[in-house]
Amino acid sequence: MTLESPKTHTQKSQEELFNFLSNVDNYKSIMPESLENFKKIDDESFLFQLKGMPEIMLVIKETTPHNQVVLGAKSDKLPFTLTADIEEAQEGSDVQLQFNGEFNAMMGMMIKGPIKKFIATLSENMGKL
What we know:
The chain is built from 2 helices and 8 strands. The chain has helices spanning 14-21, 105-127; strands spanning 2-4, 8-10, 35-42, 45-50, 56-64, 68-73, 80-89, 92-101. Strand 4 and strand 5 (56-64) form a beta hairpin. This is Orotate phosphoribosyltransferase. Keywords: Glycosyltransferase, Transferase. One of its GO terms (molecular function) is glycosyltransferase activity.
């Protein structure tokens, strides 16, 4: 299953946004209002929980300086990645999030809506930076 957020413009430069997304401490500030728990595990990973959802642990899997940050699930139970593609733009940068996961059809139907809303909110909150 692949889902994409709308492309969002931010006032941060491409390098500033890349550095922001490469620091796990910063993700708390772009999470949805329904955030119930956020905990930094180490410099590469964090755990978060939204209301009515299970805890999810994410780890920075790879980075391509100033262009891309790839987060992935730390657990193999729900394998997925969340990729932020960052492009230079006039007076800032543009970012688009892409969610890729391997789920059975039933699970995919259950989580598609909440995940689409989640990545749209993250993207929207990055635009406010």
